[in-house]
Amino acid sequence: MSGNRGTVMRHGLRALVAAFFALPLALAIAPSAHAADPTTMTNGFYADPDSSAKRWVAANSGDGRASAINVSIANTPMARWFGSWSGTIGTATGAYVGAADSRDKLPILVAYNIYNRDYCGGHSAGGAASPSAYATWIAQFAGGIANRPAVVILEPDSLGDYGCMTQAQIDEREGMLTGALAQFNRQAPNTWVYLDAGNPGWADPATMARRLHEAGLRQAHGFSLNVSNYFTTAENTAYGNRVNSELNARYGYTKPFVVDTSRNGNGSNGQWCNPSGRRIGTPTQLGGGAEMLLWIKTPGESDGNCGVGSGSSAGQFLPEAAYKMIYGY
């Protein structure tokens, strides 16, 4: 009996090998970067235990706003942003995804360190010191994640921010993004990377489709919309579908997209920098009109020295802004 089983196994192995070599070469050696689904490798999304909202609640438990902020914001899974403030980046991303992995949760990370970041807007200016420094940084970012499941939003605003850039600067930026996607494909096979595509109020769908494609979207899992902005989920879904129509017509492919719903409960009033009267949106979840609805920007974190955040710096947690955003006033 055992000898017969061995014969069957050898024949089966021989057939498997023959079938593999009969595959078209491109299929046989195709990278598996997008084959894995990190949402099925985990049990829900990771709520950052060290978010700015969590830290504020812990330090201000006696504040009358603390309970509402804790319940409505601090315990909702949301992204952690990584940049020059993160220290040794591979260590930082590795520790974060490792903590999520130990809890069988899916972490959301934002890479926000591109050279000449926010070049035209200025409120979040900074980033890596050079394109080569960025290449090193993003390679270490991806290496820290390694084979653990993760979602990465790649460089918010980078493709909407062309108004004051020369063609050489645009080409340079697109090259940095393409190089970044290659690093994730090589080093982080269980990560879904979304190349940021701005929001419906920034570039028309045809323009954004071209920018995404030229920055390497084909290598990414998908694209992200509305990061740190306020447009409704319906507006973003309609825009994302139009971008996909343009991608399909021009380049022959489409991609999934995600929407930042952290602050879009009341929609946009046309202002992007700490506008008043905004409201938190649908908590992080799969589906909902897009592939995922995610809290990418922490509600209550300032957009910069502007609007209801006058006197603050970008990223600073403003408890009053967070509290009002829970109730929409």
Automatic annotation (TrEMBL):
Transmembrane spans: none
Any single biological process term in GO: cellulose catabolic process
Domain of life: Bacteria
Keyword terms, alphabetized: Carbohydrate metabolism, Cellulose degradation, Disulfide bond, Glycosidase, Hydrolase, Polysaccharide degradation, Signal
Catalytic-site annotation from UniProt: 157, 303
Enzyme class: hydrolase
Residues noted as binding substrate in the record, renumbered to the chain: 81, 202, 229, 272, 297, 301
Matching InterPro entries: Beta_cellobiohydrolase, Beta_cellobiohydrolase_sf, Glyco_hydro_6_CS
Signal peptide region: 1-35
EC numbers, comma separated: 3.2.1.-
MF-aspect GO terms: hydrolase activity, hydrolyzing O-glycosyl compounds
SUPFAM superfamilies assigned to the protein according to its UniProt record, in alphabetical order: Glycosyl hydrolases family 6, cellulases
PANTHER family recorded: 1,4-BETA-D-GLUCAN CELLOBIOHYDROLASE C-RELATED (PTHR34876:SF4), PTHR34876
Family, as annotated: Belongs to the glycosyl hydrolase family 6.
Protein name (record): Glucanase
Record organism: Streptomyces himastatinicus ATCC 53653
